[in-house]
């Protein structure tokens, strides 16, 4: 029969072995964040615009002592895998998906990654990983809200309702949010002493509700009718501001004629002329 001391000794050894296994397992498993690798840059920092020449740039900084494969993760999925080349003395790209490419400059501890032709799927989280060792903290790439353009528009011949200026913008705000467009009509004149003076003629605030969209951003717009400008003798430019950005549309004589008379008004005048001619013909024939 085993003595109590022997049983206690065996239990202590077994407990010690289990603790050692747990410690080794924890040390070998990837940590959620680590100084061994870090995502130091994710741009554009103010968000994606999906413009033609836009490019995502990502920098991963790793401990030079490691030679384990490095991966770039998008939303938790490996999009690039880099493996160490002993002949080149640096990490080389082994595989990539979704248009991402990475390179490792010599004598640095950085991995540089880029992607062009951005899409809504790129507005998500990113991290870097030393395979089997550590995973960096995540950084989020969002969608930037910004103004697109402002231009004269005339959707129909009805001048009173559809002639004016249209200001367009994109936003990544949640549907149902409100966005305020600010309009200003300004005249610029030179005084006798050569001083340039600006005069604010008309202002307008237009609150727009962000609609539901089938993509990661919504397209919104504000319309400034020509009607408030009908009694204005002259104005130099009209400007639209939203999301802290402003675009200006200069007004020259051609634009002034369009906004002050409108093709609808011009056409209505011709209609009146034709009607008068027809009326005169009827009178002449009836005689």
UniProtKB/TrEMBL annotation:
Keywords: Signal
Superkingdom assignment: Eukaryota
Signal peptide region: 1-36
Protein name in UniProt: Ig-like domain-containing protein
Lineage per the UniProt record: Eukaryota, Metazoa, Spiralia, Lophotrochozoa, Mollusca
């Amino acid at each position: 029969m085993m003595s109590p001391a022997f049983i206690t000794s065996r239990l202590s050894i077994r407990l010690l072995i289990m603790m050692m296994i747990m410690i080794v397992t924890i040390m070998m498993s990837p940590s959620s964040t680590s100084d061994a690798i870090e995502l130091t840059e994710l741009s554009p920092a103010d968000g994606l615009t999906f413009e033609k020449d836009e490019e995502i740039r990502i920098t991963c900084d790793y401990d030079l002592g490691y030679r384990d494969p490095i991966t770039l993760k998008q939303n938790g999925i490996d999009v690039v895998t880099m493996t160490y080349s002993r002949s080149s003395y640096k990490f080389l790209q082994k595989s990539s998906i979704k248009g991402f490419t990475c390179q490792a400059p010599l004598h640095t501890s950085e991995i540089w990654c880029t992607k062009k032709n951005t899409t809504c799927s790129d507005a998500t989280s990113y991290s870097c990983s030393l395979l089997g060792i550590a995973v960096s903290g995540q950084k989020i790439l969002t969608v930037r809200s910004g103004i697109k353009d402002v231009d004269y528009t005339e959707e129909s011949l009805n001048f009173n309702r559809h002639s004016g200026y249209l200001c367009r913008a994109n936003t990544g705000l949640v549907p149902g949010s409100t966005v305020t467009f600010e309009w200003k009509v300004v005249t610029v004149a030179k005084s006798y002493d050569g001083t340039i003076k600006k005069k604010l003629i008309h202002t307008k605030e237009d609150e727009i509700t962000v609609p539901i969209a089938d993509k990661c951003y919504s397209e919104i717009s504000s319309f400034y009718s020509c009607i408030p400008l009908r009694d204005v003798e002259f104005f130099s430019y009209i400007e639209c501001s939203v999301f802290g950005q402003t675009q200006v549309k200069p007004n020259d004589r051609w634009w002034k004629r369009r906004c002050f008379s409108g093709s609808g008004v011009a056409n209505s005048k011709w209609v009146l002329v034709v009607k008068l001619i027809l009326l005169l013909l009827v009178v002449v024939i009836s005689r």
